[in-house]
Design brief:
This protein is of the alpha/beta class. Helices cover about 30% and strands about 25% of the residues. It contains 19 helices and 23 strands. The longest helix is centred in the middle third of the chain and has 26 residues. The N and C termini lie far apart (about 60 Å). This is Glycoside hydrolase superfamily. Keywords: Glycosidase, Hydrolase. InterPro entries: DUF5597, GH, Glyco_hydro_42_N. GO terms for molecular function: hydrolase activity.
Length: about 575
Amino acid sequence: MPPTHPHLASTPSGTRLIVNGKPTLLLPGELHNSSLSSPKYMSTVWPAMKANHINTLLGAVTWEMIEPAEGTFDFTALTQIILDARSHGIHLVLLWFGSYKNGISTYAPGWVKRDHVRFPRVRVWDVERGEHRTIEMISPLCGEGAQADARAFAKLMAHIKEIDEEFGTVVMVQVENETGLLGDSRDRSPMAQEAFERGVPLELLRHLCAHENLHPRFKERFASRLPALETLANAPEGKVNTWETIFGPGTPADEAFMAYHISRYIETVASAGKARYALPMYTNTWLNFDDPSALDMTGYPIVVGGGARPGIYPSGGPCPHVSDIWRFNAPSLDFLAPDLYFHDYERVCVDYTFPGTNPLFIPEQRRDAHGARRVWLAYASYGALGTAPFGVDTGAEEIGREYKLLSQTSKYHLESTPSQRMGFFFDDLPDSSSPSCASSGSPRGKEQWTKIFGNIEVIIERAFVFGKPGPGAGMVIQLGDADSYRFLVVGRGFQVRFRGLEDGITFTGILQALEKEVDEDNDRELRTLRVLNGDETRSGESLIMPNEEPDYGGFPIAVTIPARTCIAEVEAYTISEGY
């Protein structure tokens, strides 16, 4: 029997979150850090989120708040929050800010912070001062810290089960937040140094040797070390395989060491909570930049986007190149998730769907139009469980515009297979006076997106206008079987054309195009609003899905009408004349 509480399941549509027995498409946003601590504050947030088609909110539950004194727990505020979310029909993904939030321990309760003997801190090398210094981070080698955190987390999960299991308001839990060490590549405390000198645990070494599906980023980062792994793994018991020997001297060894010990710490916490209530669990990632120059051109400080060196980004966090260590050490986590602000969006989607068993969930991303356009790629092309723009309680309008369309067409999305979907986006084109597209904050993406569906190729380009082409984003879903030429087209600012791929085809065009609207009185079925042709299909050449304010560039004829429902059904056809 499948579990009755929210859980992940493999379906023809991909890995899906099952809530109350049904696959559910999360349309989430992440709240500011302190928002979920106050039912009064949230009382004005719930209706605003509903108005922007957000059906799930990510918010923090902190260790300091639920266990202010050791062994004394207070769930008063959280209980009210869950009840209020339920009454508004909004799901929750709870973020456990326990030992670690952004690599430090500021959310640990005071009784933990004050007891540095029982809960020893990380020590880092301060280059400017030429000496070691203590930072506000519980060492990931601190067994007492892991056990205390695990006890609190287990209490939290037991409480959620008690008040919510039959309702499924809380659907997932994030274990800690952006783990890793900032300010140095590894913990330099005496306890950590001793562990470092003991070398790489043999069970990890043997796992890396035996695992046939190592992440491509691991192979790139440690390519020169791989040939020696098997020999070292088969060395006699008791031989010390140093971190430098296995992963390379300096920061590569340091980062692998930190990844091993942080992931073990997180597993201690996650497994304790999962034993009490087995909701889907994940941890999130502050990503690194392999090439810092990609961030330089945005004008943002490099620390906000991650650098190329461990310690500038959190050393040991679940970045792709050490994710194999995390997957080995933390089996209680159902997946690893990227916080995605400035990176190449599609590359990160690829990295966090490898090796095919890690469903994509983006717990933090940009909430502006730049970020909102990209969610189509995550949902349609990479089957995302959800994408969560950060800070939605103070700005949900941009994502709400996209979520409205995703909500209206979620039935078709959930019923389609991965091979039947594609997502895409087009950013604003830079002004001619602009030296580059740096203002977009990351690569602008493709100017043409294509995908082959059976025997027909779908080609997506910016919407045709006589003036300046604008931004756009959306998705295409193949309707029917794998050979169907019928498609649901959703979004704005683009056009769709087709190319038949069978031998002998001499013409490909549009047979029919129908603008659709949602029938709210009939289970949100789509019904035809208008039959499109002529200017709307460039006389059968391509279906145009305009944006709200097409730029005609002074051309006096309005041949590109503004967007209305942003949903259409189009059927292509081909002619083969035998010559």
